[in-house]
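User: Show me a protein chain along with its predicted structure.
Assistant: Here is one chain, sequence first, then structure tokens.
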Amino acid sequence: MFKIGDFSKLGQVSVLKAAPKHPHFKIRNATAEENVAALIYEGPFRNVGSAVLVLLSWIGINERSISGPVRELHPSGPAHIKGEVQEKAVLELQIPIKT
């Protein structure tokens, strides 16, 4: 897990039935965003933090402002299956921005 200051992250999951309550997670609808900085990451889940840093760097270099939490889409499936971290991942990372 990585933490950069007061950095919030919004994960996206498919919820087919009522999600169980958990003290560390809150289920909510993601709002539509007009502009996002995005990238597709392929590699081990343990290195996804470096992809977020690349995306944050792009935002700074291009003088954009972050306007919402990071969003993760997991086309490769869940990060953990039966308590085991999956080695191969494909994630789309999105950060809402103001232009």
